[in-house]
Amino acid sequence: MVRRSPAVKGKEPRSRRSAANAATGAKLAKHQVAPTLQRGIEFQRGEKFREAEYCYQLVLRDYPTQPEALNLMGTLAVHAKRYSLSLELLEKAVKASPRNANYRNNLANSYIVAEEAAKALPHLRKAISIKPRFTEALLNLARAYRAVSKAEEAANAYEKVLAYDARNKQARMGLGDTCIDLGRMDDATALFRELLTEDPGDVNAIAGLAASHKFSAEDKEIATIAAALDKPGLTNQGRAAIHDSLGKVYSDLECYDDAFEHYKEAKRIGGAGYSVEDYRAYIDKSIAQFSDEYFAARTDFGDTSNRPVFVVGMPRSGTTLTEQILASHPDVVGAGELVEIDEALLRVTNSASRETDEYFENFSTLTKEQVVQETASYLSVLKKHSLSSLRVVDKMPHNFQALGLIALMFPNAQVIHCRRDPMDTCVSCFTHHFNDAHGYARDLNTLGLYYREYDRLLRHWSDTLNLKIFDLHYENMIADQEGMSRALIDFIGLEWDDACLMFHETKRSVRTLSRWQVRQPIYTTSVKRWKRYEAHLGPLKNALGDLYEDG
Prior knowledge:
By secondary structure, this protein is mainly alpha-helical. It has a domain at 276-547: P-loop containing nucleotide triphosphate hydrolases (Rossmann fold), CATH 3.40.50.300. The chain has 26 helices and five strands. It has helices spanning 30-45, 49-62, 67-79, 83-96, 101-113, 117-130, 135-147, 151-164, 169-181, 185-198, 203-212, 221-227, 236-252, 256-269, 276-289, 292-296, 319-327, 340-348, 357-364, 368-385, 403-409, 422-430, 444-464, 474-479, 481-491, 538-544, and strands spanning 308-313, 332-334, 391-394, 414-419, 468-473. A five-stranded parallel sheet has the order 2-3-1-4-5, sandwiched between helices. It is globular. The protein starts with 29 loop residues before the first helix and ends in a 7-residue tail after the last helix.
């Protein structure tokens, strides 16, 4: 009997068994291997994944180290988002045939989608050394470099593709995004304009142009972007992205009512709802779990290192600006938005979700050994970003939810909590294109209620934790850039360096939504920006309640 892999669910198709003598249980002859794999490939191309898996398993049943079958099964597992299984299968394929560039590229792709891009790099370099003009591997190399914040190297990889395939659309699109990461806005704009000329309905080109360019009334692309809403076959996701882009266009033109209508429409069609009640229950449990007594019983947990600097806060509260100022110091490296703390939370609680009772119950039995293991793992990640920098900045805004674990792991860490006027914070969230992880930003009432829960949790941390927490108010940074920048550098225990005042000239990759803003000197127009849209903000004001301040 063939044991099925969990890569794709479903019953084995009986009609395919006779093709390889499966019905009788006879061993697959060697001359049958290639035709059976080819049949599987044809099924896979036709998106008949269960049938494809069955063919590959027929081969692996009798030839468990057959590299092509391992490779093909690995690609199926990627499609099914079974990343651990895909990595296991593709590692075996590479081991069986180390000179096969395709296997190494597929393994690297699996690492990238599993958010372990650093592990993809050596396989991609090897694949390209075997097959220098391997376009797919070069494109994956660029993706991996961007994922580990090496935008210059990513740009070089895209440019290698374009050196012998000047019209490669994927490379031009990727290079455009990478130019934005690097602050090369004019280069990005030129690329996206060219792509939009070739395909006026290309959603990615529209979004890229909106992100890289400030529009004026003379820009002919405005009509092109508006017309793209009528493109046949446009998905809801694509439609939402175009509305968000039009919101940016009309905001640039200072037509704020029109802009807000596009932002609102983008949120309306952009995704599912969000349960504030569930989030409120999560905050309730967090506050109950992480009490003074809880920390008093665990004072000897964690590592004494003061190398990590955690920048937290609501999205759009100034976290990227803060990281850029810090990273401009010669003894500081900005690591971007690291996922390691979130992954550590799920490991120590042996849970796939924060919403379960098990998640909080397992915090009660958390051992010192578990915490030590997680601190060692986290510090090893920081070393990959820099071996010599005295401080490494982890700018994951939603780590504000994880400060309880951070306090156990690194009692000497510095935490910079970015605060911004609640109305400006929420309006900025509403007028930017977030992914589904930010479902709370899809309507103004929900957004305001979510902000209240964030504020409640931060007040609890302030009362409970012994961590060094610096409350950085965005408005104070705008009003006194040098004074607040000096205070930041002093807080993390370093000597002042004038480079921190020239943060907008710092050559580093920035991949957040603020990547355009941090390439500019400090400007004041972002303060009280919500006033532009005030006529539409009644639900937000009501939801914020006493946190709303007029003025």
